[in-house]
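hey m, so remember when u said the tokens were messed up on ur end? i reran from scratch. heres the input so u can diff it against urs
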Amino acid sequence: MAATSAADAPVEASAELPVEAPADASADAPAKAPAPAKAPGMSPAACAQALRQRFPALFDGPPKPLKLRTHVDIEARAPGVFSKQVLTAFFRRYTGSTSYLLSVARGRQRFDLDGKPGGEISDEHRQIAIDELTRRGVGLQSRRELEEQQRRNRAGLLFDYERTTLTRANFCVLKQVAEEELDGLLEIARAEAAQDQQRRPPPDARPQGRPPGPRRDGPPQRASQRPSERPSQERPQGPRGRGPRNDEGHRR
């Protein structure tokens, strides 16, 4: 049997042999930068809740006029937490709300993530907010009424949610609330309910019964006594026509 020549050897055999790279190949190749961590996707309601937890001085409570380029500050202080798409969707809804427009129309100062002044509101931006409020038919004096109404709506939503027998999806359809926003609204309502509970005086601090009224002089009158039977308190009158005369002949 003829010996197999080198030319007839299988190609796979040579392909399986390890190939050594040059000694300086790794030094010349550029180092690959680690891929940045991708921010998790979240709904605008979840983004609002996360921002309230991280930056309560700015996002907790009624809306405040935001410092310009606040999204850049958020990305710098919380890298990889909020994606650009999530922040864009959140700020579009946040700055387009009537409460925020009222804060810009009535305010003079913007605020940063720590709740500190971050620049004044320009006349142009204030006028844009006023024009939009006018288009919506909202007066500048109705900000407090609007906030109180929203607070009552959240309290009613929490009250109904704790007593409903509907599924979560059906409850949201009934209340016309987006399902991804429900948890955020309920959390705000619970916090507001706790604040209201703290403002109420304790039960022992409330007055017990009616305080005693002022004491009346004189003997008590019987309820059955008629007005005509009550003793007369008219002043006694002296005899007429016997007073001393003055110099002109008239009686005093």
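this time it looks ok to me. Residues 39-138 form a domain with the Fertility Inhibition Protein O; Chain: A; Domain 1 fold (CATH 1.10.1710.10). if urs says something different then somethings off w ur setup not the seq
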